[in-house]
Amino acid sequence: MDHFENLKQQICEIGRRVYQRGFVAANEGNISIRANADHVVCTPTMFCKGFMVPDDLCVVDMEGNQISGKRRRTSEVLLHLEIYRQRADINSVVHSHPPHATAFAVAREPIPNGVLPEPDIFLGEIPIAAYETPGKQDFADTIGPYVHRTHTIVLANHGTVTYHQELEKAYWFTEILDAYCRILILAKQVGRIEYLPISKVRELLALRKQWGFDDERSEDPASQQNVADFCQFREHWELSKVVQRGFPAHPSSNEPETESLSNGQITLSDRQLEMLADLVAKRLKNDES
Fold first, then answer.
1. DSSP letter string over 41-88?
2. 76 carries an active-site annotation
3. Looking at 5, 63, 76, 118, which residue is catalytic?
4. Could you tell me the mean pLDDT of each successive run of 10 residues in the chain, 289 residues long?
5. pTM for this structure?
6. Under a CB-based contact definition with an 8 Å cutoff, are residues 100 and 185 in contact?
């Protein structure tokens, strides 16, 4: 089996997985592997990723010009090529629409950290890129502020893109992300999420570094005081129209855990306000009955 044939087989296998897991519907999504310095193997447009065979795939150059393949290449290959141009260490890209992660993309709700070990270790903080119409270079350019700082990006009102040296691991990041977002949504339906203590979040950040993942929160002095509240992508929230509405901020050391008196006023943490609101709602319900 030659080099290109092997890469095509890998893409077909991941295509089956993203389709079987419901991360894409119909002909959605696209996958690619950098074959060499000048060529990329990618999925075709308007074709279900769950039923591809190697002969269906395309080869393009680094400008997006199709070199070979009986089917037309995906228009969103420009996103993949932008990642390859920006990151010489990246050889594989998976773009899909995993439903639970895409729910955060549609709500433009930042995905919390400091809740569950696996996403904190393997994904880190997850940015949401600004929306642009798919298929154009403007769309590809939206990942610019984040591409060097992470390997997992949520695309506002669209889906997700994950990337790595190996295609298998690029896919894993998508799977971990959607599983985590599903748990967050379910936990909120049960009641609310409970954040890990700051000391435990610091331990997860140390584990992340041990596993070889670069993270600005490991280097920034501010993060040593308050890891969970240090948000490296908050500066871009306005650009992406991201607003924290569905999930409260971590009850970090910058937020009072107990009520305090300041100029005669009582200050409550977000958590205390949420508990107070629950208590009032229960009291009103009892009064009505």
1. EEPBSSS-GGG--GGG-EEEETTS-EEE-SSPBPTTHHHHHHHHHH-T
2. yes
3. 76
4. 93 98 98 98 98 98 97 97 98 98 98 96 97 97 97 98 98 98 97 92 91 83 66 92 93 48 46 65 70
5. 0.86
6. yes
